[in-house]
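Q: Please design a sequence for this.
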């Protein structure tokens, strides 16, 4: 395994698709659609516990701590695998990495559908997380070659928006499907769709425009390796050392640990029990309110990417101010826990998703800290922090709810949930303070300026539309 050289296949510039040949434009659109479909399924697996968790808990007699453990196993596996998946995407190829690991997730999804005890369900969730951990990182690796620097955050946000279709499907539609055919049949179907996504990725996705342009041509004669290229192990060590020696990775990682971790802890697991317990809502009623959370993210993610690419021309302000706006959504959850009307709850969860969508800019911010060769490793490192946050908050909130005496709530569910939700609120506030020390290096602005120049040189990784010669 060796890291791809950016000399031979540099990333796209920011001049957009206007200078690309029609086949390249069509292919990158098709690749986006296939990856988006795969990410919808990945996100469904991630968000499903908010609805199916209470059903499984009732069937198997799980307590809140066991439910939190089962749901969090996805995130622990995701966190453990996501940095290696970045290295694999950089070296072995993003298409191969995505297709193989998503197929593994499909097999684990089938095991989850037939699981009958907490051990089997938790282990299945772990392997599902392991399998789908590669999807977003591999997608960003591919996007870094197919899209320019002033497109990357926008398309990252669009991918998150499509992913939230999976989260939408895991609310009211999943509730209805479970009521119609049972949760085991639902997840058997989801496992089959996951396998379909893996196969389609293998045959449709192409890692780079240059690779796509070479298809159909005779294979070139292999040349000797470049002198000083180094071994695969040396490349691997260099990538790890480069990424983890940069303080910016840790500042972004600390932010997304609580930014993403808190809304996955609340929005994707404990919001459902909160609505059932505190407000006495039925599963369909709660599902319709919870659906507004991913709907808000479906708007918030591409909006944040667009603001970062086209308005601010920077990543830090969108992440910082987006985090502050998201922090405000915890005020009614903590201070007015049982006092919200139905429309207030709907508006709150919509705002929760809309403001939470700003986290998506972290991927472009992390990639731009490094040489493009390390795009997958950089995104993988930050995603590792992000998924650790999801696992941490899902489990810790569950522990607080399972042991009300820890926070002095006694038997009062209103006080219990208010104090449980104070945990993510305080965590996010502290991480925002730490992230305020982050400063961008200006590479994004420089890339935009260079690519916007009419004299900018063509990018070898792209296939430009031929320009007819001038008449003399």
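A: Design:
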């Amino acid at each position: 395994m060796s890291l791809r050289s950016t000399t031979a296949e540099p990333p796209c510039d920011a001049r957009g698709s206007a200078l690309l040949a029609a086949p390249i434009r069509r292919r990158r659109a098709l690749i986006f659609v296939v990856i988006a479909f795969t990410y919808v399924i990945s996100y469904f697996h991630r968000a499903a516990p908010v609805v199916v968790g209470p059903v499984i808990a009732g069937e198997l007699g799980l307590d809140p701590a066991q439910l939190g453990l089962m749901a969090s196993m996805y995130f622990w596996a995701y966190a453990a695998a996501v940095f290696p998946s970045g290295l694999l995407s950089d070296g072995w190829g993003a298409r191969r990495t995505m297709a193989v690991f998503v197929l593994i997730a499909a097999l684990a999804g089938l095991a989850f559908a037939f699981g009958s005890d907490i051990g089997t369900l938790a282990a299945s969730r772990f392997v599902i997380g392991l399998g789908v951990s590669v999807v977003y990182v591999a997608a960003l690796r591919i996007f870094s070659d197919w899209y320019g620097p002033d497109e990357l955050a926008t398309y990252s946000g669009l991918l998150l928006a499509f992913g939230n279709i999976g989260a939408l499907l895991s609310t009211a539609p999943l509730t209805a499907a479970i009521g119609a055919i049972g949760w085991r049949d639902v997840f058997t179907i989801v496992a089959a769709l996951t396998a379909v996504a893996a196969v389609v990725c293998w045959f449709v996705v192409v890692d780079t425009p240059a690779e796509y342009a070479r298809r159909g041509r005779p294979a070139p004669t292999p040349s000797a390796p470049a002198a000083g290229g180094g071994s695969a192990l040396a490349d691997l060590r260099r990538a790890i050392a480069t990424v983890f020696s940069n303080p910016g990775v840790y500042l972004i990682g600390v932010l997304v640990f609580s930014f993403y971790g808190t809304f996955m802890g609340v929005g994707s697991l404990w919001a459902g029990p909160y609505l059932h317990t505190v407000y006495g809502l039925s599963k369909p009623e709660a599902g319709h309110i919870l659906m507004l959370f991913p709907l808000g993210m479906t708007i918030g993610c591409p909006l944040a990417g667009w603001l970062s690419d086209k308005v601010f021309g920077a990543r830090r302000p969108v992440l910082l101010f987006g985090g502050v706006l998201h922090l405000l959504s915890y005020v009614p959850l903590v201070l007015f826990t049982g006092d919200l009307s139905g429309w207030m709850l709907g508006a709150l969860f919509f705002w929760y998703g809309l403001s939470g969508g700003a986290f998506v800019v972290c991927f472009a911010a992390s990639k731009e800290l490094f040489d493009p060769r390390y795009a997958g490793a950089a995104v993988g490192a930050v995603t590792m922090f992000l998924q650790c946050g999801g696992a941490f908050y899902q489990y810790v909130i569950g522990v607080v709810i399972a042991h009300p005496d820890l926070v002095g709530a006694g038997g009062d569910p209103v006080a219990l949930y208010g104090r449980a939700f104070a945990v993510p609120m305080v965590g996010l506030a502290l991480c925002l303070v730490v992230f305020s020390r982050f400063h961008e290096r200006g590479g994004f602005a420089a890339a935009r300026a260079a690519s916007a120049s009419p004299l900018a040189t063509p990018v070898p990784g792209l296939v430009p539309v031929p320009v007819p010669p001038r008449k003399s």
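Q: Thanks. Anything notable?
A: Residues 1-19, 221-229, 448-472 have pLDDT under 50 and may be disordered. DSSP finds 20 helices and no strands in the chain.
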